[in-house]
Amino acid sequence: MATLAEPLARRRPASPVLRFVARLFREKPLGAIGGIVFLAFLFVGVFADVLAPYGANQISPVNRLKPPSAAFPFGTDNLGRDMLSRCIYGAQLSVIIGFCAAGLATLISVVLGIVTGYLGGKVDLIAQRFVDAWQSFPDLIVLIVVVSVVGPGMPQIIVTLGLLLGIAGSRIIRSAVVSVRENMYVHAAQSIGASTPRILWRHILPNVLPPIIVLFTTRVGVVILVESALSFLGLGVPPPAPTWGGMLSGSGRAFMFHGPWLALAPGLCLTVVVYATNVFGDALRDLFDPRMRGSR
Amino acid sequence: MRRSTRTTALAAGIFGASLALGAGAPLADTDKPKHGGTLEVGTVYVTLSALSWDAQDFNWKHNHDTGQVYEQLFAADLSKSVRNGGPHPFYADAWLPSDAIRGELAESWEWKENPLRVEIKLRKGIMFPEKPGVMQARELVADDVVFSYNRLANSPRLLKDYFTHIKNVEATDKHTVVFTFNQYFAEWDYRFGWGYYSGIYPKEVADAGAANWKNVNGTGPFMLAEFVQGNSNTYVKNPNYWDKEKVNGGEYKLPFIDKLVYRTIKDEATFITALRTGKLDILEAIRWQNVDELKKNAPQLKWSKWLNMSGTYLAFQVNEKPFDDIRVRRALNMAVNKKEIVSAYYNGNAELFAYPMHPDYKGYFEPLEAMPDSVKELFEYNPAKAKKMLAEAGYPNGFSFKVQVCACSPDHMDLLPLVAAYLEQVGVKIEIQPMEYAAFLSAMTSRKMTAGYFMNNGHTNPTTTIRKSFTTGQQWNPSGWSDPAYDKKMDAVYAERDEGKRQAMLKEMTREILDKAPYVWMPTPYIYTAWWPWVKNYNGELRAGAVRPGPIYARLWIDQDLKKKMGY
Amino acid sequence: MQAYIVRRLLALVPTLFFASLIVFVTVRLIPGSVIDLMLSQNDISADKFSRDQLIAALGLDKPMWEQYARWMGGILLAGDFGRSLWHNTPVAELLMARLPVTFQLGAMALVVALIVAIPIGAYSAMRQDTAGDYVGRSFSILMLAIPSFWLGTMVMVFPSIWWGWSPELKFVPFRQNPLQNLSQMIIPAIILGTSLSAVTMRLTRTMMLEVLRQDYIRTAWAKGLSERLVVARHALRNALIPVVTLIGLQAPLLIGGAVIMEQIFVIPGMGLLLLDAVNQRDYPIITGVFLIVGVAVMVINLLVDLSYGLLDPKVRYR
């Protein structure tokens, strides 16, 4: 309803965004906390270079495996790198991977969902059958093959995950589009001869914005989690890049007893952020439309 | 060779060094051996399942999985082990000291001239057991040896140079095999005798399909009963096995145990757990990171440790600038603080110098102290001199180069950034290029690698370690080292019949190559072996042939009462 | 409905064809060829002659289209997936040994997921926005947020230190020894199932909320039926119908996501087979796994869709 809300916003001081935030805090306190964590994590990721006391790969053999202390609040790892800094840079990497992959996925979902949902008919039918078939290949299996083919690295993980999640998510956007398609204002626009791209852009897209936002938010968590699984299999973003998943499955597991903090710090970051994106996404979903269903 | 770069940490190699262990005192058990029980082993290759059951596929792991079923002409004489008061720990990948080789299927052998040949008399009365659907029980004869050799020599997967020294193999009577040579070859018995593909199997198995585990049938102490790929190999005792073992004055029929199980476990935390809870009786390769915790939580475990049977290094492409300049290569060696890597990175669980020769190679190895000063210098941290030499070579401000490394090795992914940090101190920058295992290996063998290449390379044995790494055109020669004079020396080694002379030649060649520094020589870590005290007549021996532990497992026994008493 | 099934199958065929073609070709073109890997098994030099001989022995000397045609032809005509390049045994045998294991783990995980998700989801809906709602949902989402490899490692390591106990690690097929088989599979199934439960829980909750607002529920309340009866007999039953479809959606997650559990708990399933094959560039296994997993998931999905129609007569297929 963004198109209607705009003129309203000009007349009244309290913007709909603010009102929405107020509602979030009132009705969904858990989701609100998730949202705060999500924003904090975004902030840390963006300003990692300023916030981190040391470099992510600043090696110092004499300081290796030091437990948490004033100088190193999260301790140091087996090469004497500061775990706090690595976790902060890990947030940066997670933001990059998470936002790029989730962004790409959302873009694909939106394009595919809007086109198939709006056009309907044969295009829709055929496209949906292929989406069905595509979803039959388990994400992890596709990722294992792709990463082995092109070698481990961030861009390939982003693109593959973006594609996988994007095609799967197109379902959700499509069903939202289908319900919007039959609205009066869409018919009105069609009858005055508005072009299809214009209808899609001006009338359909603004009205399916809520599910898009929800989709994006929850995808960020999914991407971070999948990267950690890939790291465990040795197919994640390769070290020394400080991804949380890589730290947890690598030195975190190898030094489980010598230095439990090697696992604790990245493990907590990862779990908290994934948890936060999920509860935040859930809350948004409930607020936007309690009947909206998520698939994955 | 291969495992060099394998996944999961240590897949690589064995080996040993009783150095720090305090070899010496024999640890003979005084109890009377008992038959029976099951031995569950996490082998050195605990992460790898059997790849092929057919020798003709030329797969190195074949010998590891079939070495207890298929016997060979020769095997290790385990009475020469440290445990029995002898000099050898039997950790090496694929090396049997010449004073510790015994005939297994061979009863005796003799060199003869004109033409140059070895005449091998086989033991009589060795039986292949019955295998339903494959064969009846029958005696092993000379024709079986000839068959096994010829099938290998005619395999489409054979590398042409493998058997060029052999003219032909014939059975001159039922129990005599003659190997006729084109020329003398110092590693003849490793290539076919006790080596990777030296198992003797009957024609019936090949006819039924040697690649199918269900058809595997040999004269050895065990018979393959089940194979669950990715989980376990189960072998049961061959009740009619011919060999016996003397223990504490008594003579006993082999094998002692009823059942032998190789477990395949990919995850390190899992195989350590399996040892901790007694689900494994022996775990042969344990990284130092796990040792303290195990010693604390499973204090009754017995331990041995060995220096990894492969060397770690940063190889330079010596044909390209700037690494065609020896000063640059030597300078980078001095720029890396190797002693600090031993103490800080490995926590002391490593030795500064154990490559390309291994301290276990008695008669071939010379310690660092015995090396000329110009070699010793490469192991001393001297950034000032490194800078000076770089300046002399025309790089006063350093340079930068790419290094490929296998993302499959968590150790290397930690170690290389550390090396990079040292090099940066002298102005040399490294761009790290992590690669997936197969692509990484392929980059080396197809010579498409970057200027630097960070890897592990197995020693194999004291002769092969030099040949495969530093002679022209070899696959496992990452620096692309090619020196006709050096190649000639290697040929001379192979043609030399006197082992003492070969040892002297190889020592000389080792010194030369160390000095010329085609690699940044890195320290070699210790690997640990642990077993529960109920495993008797055993002291951590790993191989009685080329990656072949079978004869060792046939000779140990399990004190089941002790096991029960300890609550397992 | 027959027409529907036919249409579904028709969409399936070209997808499988293209997917298998793409996988077939790309794995053969990627850096790190199986030939290099095999030649480097030996510590001597590999000359051109030996190399060509090996390529021919593996049948990789033929043009790509011919290799593909042979492979596809073998599958269609004889169910022959080719031979593994390394193991030198039929790929079909390897797949058939692994597929039931993967299915079993997946099915067990699914049951766990439903056992966890449905009560929590139903409870959360009935007590919407109460502490109970938050706790239940939080638990479910938390299980999703903890990486399963980490949970698996903890379960593997700590009980063994505290109580000297660890799960069974020697695999036997269910048919052979159900007890030993289950004692190995149950823990990974629980971990996998709880991590998947969040999605099912969420859907159950949403559907319950919707159903609880319906007229017939209000009627049931009005009749004075107990809460238990209303929920069990009316609400939950109706809410669960769409949950069934979710099972189809989760099938690929169960089959693909199991690889981590397979690795930690030493379960010889499809995931590990693929991982090894990829490392070793065993092309026929890679393509075989891909194809078989794809077909399996598609068939499950089709069955789920059909059963959905049986459950709810309102649904019609078009």
Question: Describe it for me?
Answer:
The complex is a heterotrimer of chains A (296), B (568) and C (318). Chain A contains 14 helices and no strands. In chain A, helix 2 packs across helix 3 and helix 5 runs antiparallel to helix 6. In chain B, helix 7 packs antiparallel against helix 10 and helix 14 packs antiparallel against helix 15. In chain B, strands 1, 10, 11, 14, 15, 16, 18 and 23 form an eight-stranded mixed sheet that branches. A five-stranded mixed sheet of chain B has the order 20-19-21-17-22. By secondary structure, chain B is an alpha+beta fold. Helices cover 26% and strands 22% of the residues of chain B. The chains are: A mainly alpha (296), B alpha+beta (568), C mainly alpha (318). The interface between A and B is medium-sized, with 26 and 26 residues.
Offer a quick outline of the entry.
Chain B is an alpha+beta fold.
Describe the secondary-structure layout.
The complex is a heterotrimer of chains A (296), B (568) and C (318).
Chain A: H1 2-11, H2 16-27, H3 29-46, H4 48-51, H5 83-119, H6 121-135, H7 139-150, H8 154-181, H9 184-191, H10 196-207, H11 209-232, H12 244-249, H13 251-254, H14 261-288
Helix pairs in contact in A: 2-3, 3-5, 3-14, 5-6, 5-8, 5-11, 5-14, 6-8, 7-8, 8-11, 9-10, 11-14
Chain B: E1 38-42, H1 62-66, E2 74-76, E3 101-103, E4 106-112, E5 117-122, E6 127-128, E7 138-139, H2 142-153, E8 166-173, E9 176-181, H3 188-191, H4 203-208, E10 222-228, E11 232-237, E12 244-247, E13 250-253, E14 259-263, H5 268-276, E15 282-286, H6 291-297, E16 302-307, E17 310-316, H7 326-335, H8 338-345, E18 350-351, H9 373-376, H10 383-392, E19 400-406, H11 410-425, E20 429-435, H12 437-445, E21 452-458, H13 464-470, H14 484-495, H15 499-516, E22 519-521, E23 524-531, E24 535-536, H16 550-555, E25 557-558, H17 560-565
Parallel strand pairs in B: 1-14, 1-15, 19-20, 19-21
Antiparallel strand pairs in B: 2-3, 4-5, 5-9, 6-7, 8-9, 10-11, 11-14, 12-13, 15-23, 16-23, 17-21, 17-22, 18-23, 24-25
Chain C: H1 2-29, H2 34-39, H3 48-57, H4 64-78, H5 91-126, H6 131-145, H7 148-162, H8 178-212, H9 215-222, H10 227-265, H11 270-280, H12 283-311
Helix pairs in contact in C: 1-12, 5-6, 5-8, 5-10, 5-12, 6-8, 7-8, 7-10, 8-10, 9-10, 10-11, 10-12, 11-12
